[in-house]
Design brief:
Length: 228
Protein backbone atom coordinates (compact mmCIF):
# COMPACT_ATOMS: atom_id res chain seq x y z
CA UNK A 1 0.00 0.00 0.00
CA UNK A 2 1.31 3.48 -0.85
CA UNK A 3 2.12 5.65 2.16
CA UNK A 4 0.94 9.24 1.89
CA UNK A 5 1.77 11.97 4.34
CA UNK A 6 -1.28 14.25 4.15
CA UNK A 7 -0.08 17.76 4.83
CA UNK A 8 -2.31 20.00 2.71
CA UNK A 9 -6.04 20.62 2.25
CA UNK A 10 -8.08 22.47 -0.38
CA UNK A 11 -10.48 23.77 2.22
CA UNK A 12 -9.25 25.59 5.31
CA UNK A 13 -11.09 27.29 8.16
CA UNK A 14 -10.49 30.11 10.58
CA UNK A 15 -10.25 28.80 14.15
CA UNK A 16 -11.07 31.12 17.06
CA UNK A 17 -10.48 30.28 20.71
CA UNK A 18 -13.60 29.94 22.85
CA UNK A 19 -13.54 32.81 25.38
CA UNK A 20 -13.71 30.61 28.48
CA UNK A 21 -13.29 26.90 27.66
CA UNK A 22 -9.74 25.71 27.10
CA UNK A 23 -9.29 23.66 23.91
CA UNK A 24 -12.73 24.52 22.56
CA UNK A 25 -12.61 26.41 19.25
CA UNK A 26 -15.19 28.35 17.30
CA UNK A 27 -15.27 27.44 13.61
CA UNK A 28 -17.85 28.93 11.25
CA UNK A 29 -19.57 30.45 14.29
CA UNK A 30 -20.09 27.07 16.02
CA UNK A 31 -18.35 25.50 19.02
CA UNK A 32 -15.92 22.79 17.92
CA UNK A 33 -14.29 20.27 20.28
CA UNK A 34 -11.44 17.75 19.84
CA UNK A 35 -12.84 14.30 19.05
CA UNK A 36 -10.50 12.79 21.67
CA UNK A 37 -12.69 14.45 24.33
CA UNK A 38 -15.34 11.80 23.60
CA UNK A 39 -13.02 9.30 25.22
CA UNK A 40 -12.91 11.40 28.39
CA UNK A 41 -16.69 11.98 28.24
CA UNK A 42 -17.30 8.23 28.32
CA UNK A 43 -15.02 7.90 31.35
CA UNK A 44 -16.36 10.84 33.36
CA UNK A 45 -17.78 14.10 32.01
CA UNK A 46 -16.68 15.90 35.15
CA UNK A 47 -13.05 15.46 34.07
CA UNK A 48 -13.84 17.62 31.04
CA UNK A 49 -15.30 20.27 33.34
CA UNK A 50 -12.33 20.29 35.71
CA UNK A 51 -9.71 20.33 32.95
CA UNK A 52 -11.25 22.61 30.37
CA UNK A 53 -13.80 24.81 32.15
CA UNK A 54 -12.07 25.18 35.54
CA UNK A 55 -8.63 25.00 33.90
CA UNK A 56 -7.10 22.55 36.40
CA UNK A 57 -3.72 21.29 35.20
CA UNK A 58 -2.31 17.90 36.22
CA UNK A 59 0.76 15.88 35.40
CA UNK A 60 0.23 13.35 32.58
CA UNK A 61 -0.05 9.76 33.82
CA UNK A 62 2.67 7.20 33.04
CA UNK A 63 0.34 5.52 30.53
CA UNK A 64 -0.22 8.85 28.76
CA UNK A 65 3.51 9.55 28.50
CA UNK A 66 4.27 6.04 27.22
CA UNK A 67 1.42 6.29 24.71
CA UNK A 68 2.72 9.60 23.36
CA UNK A 69 6.23 8.17 22.97
CA UNK A 70 5.09 5.13 20.96
CA UNK A 71 2.84 7.37 18.90
CA UNK A 72 5.70 9.74 18.07
CA UNK A 73 8.06 6.91 17.12
CA UNK A 74 5.51 5.45 14.68
CA UNK A 75 4.86 8.89 13.27
CA UNK A 76 8.59 9.54 12.69
CA UNK A 77 9.05 6.21 10.87
CA UNK A 78 5.99 6.88 8.73
CA UNK A 79 7.20 10.35 7.72
CA UNK A 80 10.53 8.95 6.49
CA UNK A 81 8.83 6.38 4.25
CA UNK A 82 5.91 8.38 2.88
CA UNK A 83 5.34 10.94 0.15
CA UNK A 84 3.58 14.28 0.80
CA UNK A 85 0.02 14.53 -0.49
CA UNK A 86 -3.01 16.77 -0.44
CA UNK A 87 -6.01 15.29 1.40
CA UNK A 88 -8.46 15.60 -1.46
CA UNK A 89 -5.97 14.15 -4.00
CA UNK A 90 -5.17 11.20 -1.74
CA UNK A 91 -8.88 10.42 -1.27
CA UNK A 92 -9.51 10.58 -5.02
CA UNK A 93 -6.43 8.54 -5.99
CA UNK A 94 -7.36 5.81 -3.49
CA UNK A 95 -10.45 5.00 -5.57
CA UNK A 96 -7.98 3.40 -8.00
CA UNK A 97 -5.04 2.45 -5.79
CA UNK A 98 -4.97 1.79 -2.06
CA UNK A 99 -2.99 4.04 0.27
CA UNK A 100 -2.45 4.52 3.97
CA UNK A 101 -1.82 7.68 5.94
CA UNK A 102 -1.18 8.59 9.57
CA UNK A 103 -2.12 11.57 11.70
CA UNK A 104 -4.76 12.79 9.28
CA UNK A 105 -6.52 15.94 10.42
CA UNK A 106 -10.30 15.94 9.99
CA UNK A 107 -12.73 18.74 10.79
CA UNK A 108 -16.52 18.96 10.49
CA UNK A 109 -17.69 22.47 11.46
CA UNK A 110 -21.38 21.58 11.04
CA UNK A 111 -21.03 18.84 13.65
CA UNK A 112 -18.65 20.81 15.88
CA UNK A 113 -15.83 18.26 15.85
CA UNK A 114 -12.20 18.00 14.79
CA UNK A 115 -9.25 15.71 15.42
CA UNK A 116 -6.39 13.61 14.13
CA UNK A 117 -7.00 10.08 12.84
CA UNK A 118 -4.14 7.82 13.98
CA UNK A 119 -4.17 5.80 10.76
CA UNK A 120 -6.41 5.51 7.73
CA UNK A 121 -6.42 2.90 5.00
CA UNK A 122 -8.09 4.13 1.84
CA UNK A 123 -8.86 1.25 -0.50
CA UNK A 124 -10.86 1.28 -3.74
CA UNK A 125 -13.72 -0.57 -2.02
CA UNK A 126 -13.55 0.74 1.57
CA UNK A 127 -12.09 3.19 4.05
CA UNK A 128 -10.74 1.90 7.37
CA UNK A 129 -10.25 4.45 10.16
CA UNK A 130 -8.05 3.23 13.00
CA UNK A 131 -7.43 4.56 16.47
CA UNK A 132 -4.57 3.11 18.53
CA UNK A 133 -5.35 2.32 22.16
CA UNK A 134 -3.54 0.67 25.04
CA UNK A 135 -4.94 -2.80 25.79
CA UNK A 136 -7.53 -4.79 23.86
CA UNK A 137 -10.85 -3.77 25.37
CA UNK A 138 -13.29 -1.79 23.21
CA UNK A 139 -14.94 0.68 25.57
CA UNK A 140 -17.98 2.69 24.50
CA UNK A 141 -15.88 5.84 24.88
CA UNK A 142 -13.09 4.65 22.54
CA UNK A 143 -15.61 3.29 20.03
CA UNK A 144 -17.36 6.67 20.06
CA UNK A 145 -14.07 8.44 19.42
CA UNK A 146 -13.35 6.47 16.25
CA UNK A 147 -17.01 6.71 15.15
CA UNK A 148 -16.71 10.50 15.32
CA UNK A 149 -13.60 10.36 13.09
CA UNK A 150 -15.70 8.37 10.60
CA UNK A 151 -18.42 11.02 10.75
CA UNK A 152 -15.93 13.86 10.16
CA UNK A 153 -14.25 11.99 7.28
CA UNK A 154 -17.61 11.28 5.67
CA UNK A 155 -18.67 14.91 6.07
CA UNK A 156 -15.44 16.18 4.49
CA UNK A 157 -15.41 13.82 1.52
CA UNK A 158 -19.03 12.81 0.84
CA UNK A 159 -17.34 9.55 -0.20
CA UNK A 160 -19.81 6.75 -0.83
CA UNK A 161 -17.38 3.92 -0.09
CA UNK A 162 -18.03 1.73 2.94
CA UNK A 163 -16.37 3.22 6.04
CA UNK A 164 -15.15 1.01 8.87
CA UNK A 165 -14.13 2.12 12.35
CA UNK A 166 -11.39 0.09 14.06
CA UNK A 167 -9.47 0.02 17.32
CA UNK A 168 -5.92 -1.37 17.34
CA UNK A 169 -3.73 -2.45 20.22
CA UNK A 170 -1.06 0.24 20.37
CA UNK A 171 2.33 -0.78 18.92
CA UNK A 172 0.89 -3.93 17.26
CA UNK A 173 -1.07 -4.92 14.15
CA UNK A 174 -3.93 -6.29 16.24
CA UNK A 175 -7.26 -4.73 15.22
CA UNK A 176 -9.27 -5.87 18.24
CA UNK A 177 -12.53 -4.17 17.27
CA UNK A 178 -13.94 -3.27 13.88
CA UNK A 179 -17.38 -2.00 12.89
CA UNK A 180 -19.05 -0.76 9.71
CA UNK A 181 -20.13 2.87 10.05
CA UNK A 182 -23.85 2.42 9.31
CA UNK A 183 -26.63 5.06 9.27
CA UNK A 184 -27.77 3.81 12.72
CA UNK A 185 -24.27 4.21 14.18
CA UNK A 186 -24.06 7.66 12.58
CA UNK A 187 -27.33 8.67 14.25
CA UNK A 188 -26.08 7.41 17.59
CA UNK A 189 -22.74 9.26 17.45
CA UNK A 190 -24.46 12.48 16.34
CA UNK A 191 -26.65 12.22 19.44
CA UNK A 192 -23.56 11.87 21.68
CA UNK A 193 -21.84 14.79 19.93
CA UNK A 194 -24.94 16.93 20.52
CA UNK A 195 -24.77 16.07 24.22
CA UNK A 196 -21.13 17.21 24.27
CA UNK A 197 -22.04 20.50 22.60
CA UNK A 198 -24.79 20.89 25.21
CA UNK A 199 -22.19 20.59 27.99
CA UNK A 200 -20.14 23.40 26.49
CA UNK A 201 -23.05 25.78 25.81
CA UNK A 202 -24.36 25.23 29.35
CA UNK A 203 -27.65 23.57 28.42
CA UNK A 204 -26.57 20.22 29.92
CA UNK A 205 -24.75 19.49 33.20
CA UNK A 206 -21.35 17.74 33.35
CA UNK A 207 -22.17 14.45 35.08
CA UNK A 208 -19.65 12.91 37.50
CA UNK A 209 -19.20 9.16 37.35
CA UNK A 210 -20.82 7.11 40.11
CA UNK A 211 -18.14 4.42 39.78
CA UNK A 212 -15.50 4.68 42.55
CA UNK A 213 -13.16 2.46 40.50
CA UNK A 214 -12.88 5.27 37.97
CA UNK A 215 -12.06 7.87 40.65
CA UNK A 216 -9.16 5.93 42.16
CA UNK A 217 -6.76 6.36 39.21
CA UNK A 218 -8.23 9.73 38.15
CA UNK A 219 -5.60 12.46 37.87
CA UNK A 220 -8.17 15.05 39.06
CA UNK A 221 -9.24 13.23 42.24
CA UNK A 222 -7.50 15.67 44.60
CA UNK A 223 -9.33 18.61 43.05
CA UNK A 224 -12.69 16.92 42.54
CA UNK A 225 -15.58 17.46 44.94
CA UNK A 226 -17.29 14.32 43.56
CA UNK A 227 -14.31 12.01 44.14
CA UNK A 228 -15.39 8.76 45.78
S1 LIG B 1 -12.46 12.02 40.69
FE1 LIG B 1 -14.11 10.72 39.87
S2 LIG B 1 -15.88 12.08 39.65
FE2 LIG B 1 -14.06 13.38 39.87
S3 LIG B 1 -13.37 13.82 37.81
FE3 LIG B 1 -12.26 12.01 38.47
S4 LIG B 1 -13.44 10.25 37.78
FE4 LIG B 1 -14.78 12.05 37.69
Amino acid sequence: MQQKNINEYDKTYEFKDHPSIKGLKIIDGKNNFPISWLNQQGYCEYQLYLENVKGIETQPTKAMTQGSQIHQELEDIFKQDSTPAKFEDAVEASKEEASMSREVFVVAPDYGIRGYIDEIWMRPDEIVIIDDKPGRTPYESTMNQVRAYCLAFKDMTCDDRKIKAALRERGTENLFWIEVFTPDIEKQIRFTIDRMLGLFDGTKPFKATKNPKKCRPCRFKNECEHSK
